[in-house]
UniProtKB/TrEMBL annotation:
Protein name in UniProt: Fe2OG dioxygenase domain-containing protein
Keyword Oxidoreductase attached: yes
PANTHER family listed in its UniProt record: OXOGLUTARATE/IRON-DEPENDENT DIOXYGENASE (PTHR47991)
Gene source species: Juglans regia (English walnut)
Keyword Metal-binding in record: yes
Annotated family: Belongs to the iron/ascorbate-dependent oxidoreductase family.
Keyword line: Iron, Metal-binding, Oxidoreductase, Vitamin C
A Pfam family this chain is assigned to: DIOX_N
MF term (GO), any: oxidoreductase activity
Domain called Fe2OG dioxygenase: residue spans: 224-325
Coiled coil ranges: none
InterPro entries found in the cross-reference section: DIOX_N (IPR026992), IPNS-like_FE2OG_OXY (IPR044861), IPNS-like_sf (IPR027443), Oxoglu/Fe-dep_dioxygenase_dom (IPR005123), Plant_2OG-oxidoreductases (IPR050295)
Amino acid sequence: MEEDKGCFHLASFIDQKDRLRISRVPVVQELARQGLHYLPDKFIKLRPDQPTTPSLVHEVNTFPSINMAKLRLGSEPEGRAHELAKLASGAQEWGMFLITDHGMPADVLYDVKDVVKEFFGLSFEEKKASVGSYANVDNMGYGRNFVKSEDQPLDWIDRLTMKAAPEGATEGLHVWPQKPNNFRQAIEKYVKESRKVFNDLLEALAESFSLERHVFVHYFHHKDSEVNVRVNYYPPCPRPDLALGITPHTDASALTLLMEFDTTGGLQVLRDRKWVAVPWPRDTLLVNVGDILEIMSNGRLKSPWHRVVTQMDADRFSIALFYNPPSRAEIEPVRINATMEHEVYKKVALRDYLQHFYKINPTSEKQAIDFAKVQ
């Protein structure tokens, strides 16, 4: 039905015989607009009797929350030491934490929300005319990625991806929406403010482990470090018990910064082999550790295995910023001294790691990072 209307994304992949294949992926937003009362087979991922279904997820009352104002240099010493200890504990135990008092102007955040909602308020035809589509699994634009076969169960999501840094990274590419006309300006302002938060956190994380403040952040030169932007839209789903918004995964980043609106809820993290619903109050931001920082910290910090579930009666938007060194960089575990403790990870070229990550994902468990482990 949806394909007859022309409401589909094109996703390319290489099949088992090394042939280029093109898959027609139904547009989730258009399926939701049709008011479906059933879930199309392409999107069924779960069974109600599985122990990992959303209805059997664990709830927690406490979750790490970091006050960035207390964390920054110049704040009251005793309070700052306490905040550094909270940061180390939260990052180690969960691999993710909330941040408050981050210093980003409220109007910058409001503008991002406005342009995202305006873009997804357009008709499918207007969105397609406004921005280009994914060409392959790690490309940018409006559409779907991580599609590897025709029979792969699909996520209940539509998304938009672009590279916001370094400057000129998308020159000549039709990946920034032309509607609304201030979309790019709003996102780039947000990215500019977010880089300050990223750098402050990288320095504070190093300090919280009694390392030199620069050991992580020195990889992130302001002119050529990379920020990828991924806008996720999860429309109402007729069967949340059978679908996932995003398949379980880790992030191929050093740090990821997440903002969500209008509806909270949906993010889950695997902890002690149980899915835990992440409590995420409105108007707070969330940060999680990515594979790259796990490598650079020699496994002191671990990228969390996480997923997103769907909701029946609500729209949910989130924006993820993925912060990385330049793709040409070589990353390696931090050396505390000449006789560093046992090395879990080795030096890797970031470009090679990212190519490996996109090639094998999605996977059923945390597998991509094995590429960087010492054998």
